[in-house]
Fold:
Amino acid sequence: MSLDTIRETVREIIEPVVNALGVELDDLVLSRMKGKALLRVFIEKEGGVTIDDCERVSREVEAILDVEDPIPFSYVLEVSSPGLDRPLKRPGDFKRFRGSMARVVTQELIDNQSFFIGKIAEVKDDGVVLLMPGDKRVAIPYSCISRARLEVEV
Structure:
């Protein structure tokens, strides 16, 4: 069974449990390196995630995964929030943080560059528009985005 298949099975099992605890499953990462496996569960809620939220989710997720046993190898479970500089992976992430500063790295050059820091001005079906310094607007198709994350504003 592939890691992607296991990851999707785990998501289907734990998402209802996480939602019932009053938080949202933001992301789930399952990785294996040197015989060790790590299951990272990222949760989010309005007003921010607390340590108590992480502990409650960890206990409940651990219990349901022990019963369902969808991961055919040993692993370590880690539950946390995505953080202030959270990754932006889906169009919904860009919509949720419209008006925030973002750092975007593209696979292809756009206006002779592949690294952008700007305010998320528009979110379209096919991409995002960043408002750069000097009121320059740059349209970036989702298909060109290599990595994106919120930029911490100080």
Summary: The chain has a mean pLDDT of 93. Residues 3-80 form a domain with the GMP Synthetase; Chain A, domain 3 fold (CATH 3.30.300.70).
